[in-house]
Every structure is written in C-alpha cells, then in structure tokens.
C-alpha cells in the first residue's frame, strides 16, 4: 500500500506518570500503552484504571491497553467503561486483549475457570462489538446472555453526536500461540504479540493470514503490531545490562543470547538493525516497552528519534519477469 508506514508507540511502565506522558507526547510517537492484572502478586495497577489515567493525561496520542485480561471481566461492564473512555478521549482508545492465566488466583477469585479463558475471551469480544454497534441489541451465548439492551456512551460536554467512534475502539489480540493467532484473524482488528523473535513473528503473520483465509476474512486495514521489550542507550553495554536485569529473572534466567532474540538492546544503530528484521517480517507498529529500571524516557526518546528514522519498509516482491 502506498500509505504504509512504520510507527512507534511506548509503554508507560512501570506506572502512568503525568510528566512522563507529557514528555513522551512531544516525541515522534503515535501511541502510549499500559496493561495490568486484577490480583497480581505485586502492587501494580489494573488495566482499565491505567487506561483512564492515560486518557486523562494525554491529548494527542492514541492510548491503549497492553493488555486487558478480558476473561476476568464481565464484558457488558467493560464495554461501557471502554466506550465512555473512547468518547471522552476523542476516539483515541484501543483495546489490546489477552487471555491471561499466569496468576490462577485471579481466575479463582472472580469465579472464572482458567480452562475457559479462551472461549470466554472469544465470546466477550463478540459482546463488546455487539454493544458498540449501537441501538437495541441481544446476545445469547454460552457464557453471557441479554435481550433488548442499548449501550449509550457519554457525550463530552458541549459536543453533539454519539461520542464514541462508530463501532467502538479497535480490538487488538495479543499472545504467542496458535489459538491467539486464530482469535486475531477471526475477531481482531490487529495482532500484537510479545516476546517474539523476528522469525517467530514472520511465522505468526503467515498463521494469522492462513486463519483469515480459512474464515473467508479480508485483512484489509488489519494492524500488524509488536509489543517489544528493549533498551536503547548511547552505551550499548548499559542497554544490554538493562535488559538482563529487567527480564532475565522474570523469564527464567534466560541466557543473554536468548534474550537478545526477543528483547533487542544496544546503541541506536544496533537496535535499528534488529528492528529492521521485524519490519521485514511484517511489523508496522512497534510498542516500545523500555526494559529498564531507570531512565525509561531516554529509551523511548532514542528509539523514536534515532531508531525509527533508520527503518524502511521492504519493496514489494516482483510478481513477474521483466519484459
């Protein structure tokens, strides 16, 4: 496509901060993201609460959940919350969705069997879209049922119209396994995996396209995204130390070579070379998640100002011999 381009977003980790977000909005980034759990083992935020802060503390960029553990939520309530935030933000909300399962106690506490998280997520996505369609609607599913209900998003003061954009926010599916790829192909507006090598991302693109073909779905307008842990520093060794300290323990003490395949680190030149491989594999929207305990805005700034300009979309493959 002639208008195809590469864009960067940023994950506001560890927590949304008003000054950090204001500084990030001055950078050449298109989006900011935050996720969360309901009952994680540490004192961290919940996804929709964090999204509300992103909505309130930004003016220009797209804001999204990366990710919302959808099976933990009653989808009618989530639909209303997300619709209101989209309306109040001027249509800037996006909803990254995952099935969760890392913390079984969350599922036990809300009365959702962890083994049902996949089908519940699929049905909840359909519920969101049904309610966001507008007008009186009904849904009769395995987990959720309602008749003749209508979701009415709030209207920002002084504005006419429905507030929320028609059809509601885009739903972007996260994950790393085939069921998530199937969900993205059949129900999602985009694919946003994490902790993937360029080779694995290329395979996931092929799988999503295969699943879409099987479902008879045209993926025009579909978003090819990646939530990417990384560190960019002037001192490449410091960047590599960032990633090792940030991710090494959390992901089973993986050796540096393995971390480097899924979490690029180094100077702007070094990281650009790694990210170009993801672009070649199909990524068009990177969410840069600083894998560092300090100086995260510097990581985002170097990524946006010095890595992004180095990336190029590969030329389309020739479809025939020259005449």
UniProtKB/TrEMBL annotation:
Q: Which residues form the Luciferase-like domain?
A: 19-285
Q: Does the keyword Oxidoreductase apply?
A: yes
Renumbered to this chain, region (Disordered) spans: 155-175
Name the UniProt key words of this record, in alphabetical order: Oxidoreductase
Xref: InterPro entries: F420-G6PD/mer (IPR050564), Luciferase-like_dom (IPR011251), Luciferase-like_sf (IPR036661)
Q: Name one Pfam family in it.
A: Bac_luciferase
Q: Where is the signal peptide?
A: none
Protein name per Swiss-Prot or TrEMBL: Alkanesulfonate monooxygenase SsuD/methylene tetrahydromethanopterin reductase-like flavin-dependent oxidoreductase (Luciferase family)
Which source organism?
Answer: Actinomadura algeriensis
